[in-house]
Amino acid sequence: MTDASETDATDLADAVLTMHGRLRRSLLASKADEVTASQTAALGRLLRYGPATVADLARAEGVRPQSMGATVQALVDLGLAERQADPTDGRRSIVSATDAGAAARQATWATRNRELADRLATLSEADRRVVARAMAVLGPIVDP
Fold first, then answer.
1. What is the domain class of 34-142 according to CATH?
2. Residue 63 pLDDT
3. Measuring CA to CA, how many Å separate 102 from each of 40, 81, 115?
């Protein structure tokens, strides 16, 4: 991004999205478990918002129900989630994270946090302040 376009909202949006993708990919490259990014996202959603149907998870993650069904089945097979019959509709099941799922998600988060903290530590104090300020500024546009 050039100085002339630093405040153009479209150019800034492009730069933020590009950096987000690069940061996400670089952190995922250093992960050591067998859980995929889509499985991690679904598990995180279950832990944040509680039990849900496969259809609800698919809508929330913007994927097809069939894809989410495969993701959930992989989580169940890994012991990170479980299915229970929906008490109001026997054709559906409710998916929830297991204790093992919560522990695995926490371990993954801690590992990624350490990796990013190590990278941030290489920045000068002034640059870390700029990053901290950027986080404060971006917060309200993420959770308005």
1. mainly alpha
2. 95
3. 11, 9, 20
Domain ranges (residues) in the chain: 34-142
Residue 130 has a pLDDT of 96
Q: In whole angstroms, how far apart are CA 11 and each of 15, 23, 132?
A: 6, 18, 21
Please write down the HEC assignment for all residues of the chain: CCHHHCCCHHHHHHHHHHHHHHHHHHHHHCCCCCCCHHHHHHHHHHHHHCCEEHHHHHHHHCCCHHHHHHHHHHHHHCCCEEEEEECCEEEEEEEEECHHHHHHHHHHHHHHHHHHHHHHHCCCHHHHHHHHHHHHHHHHHHCC
Q: What is the pLDDT of residues 7-59, one digit of tens each?
A: 899 999 999 999 999 998 888 877 767 888 889 999 999 999 999 999 999 99
Is this prediction's pTM over 0.90? Answer: no
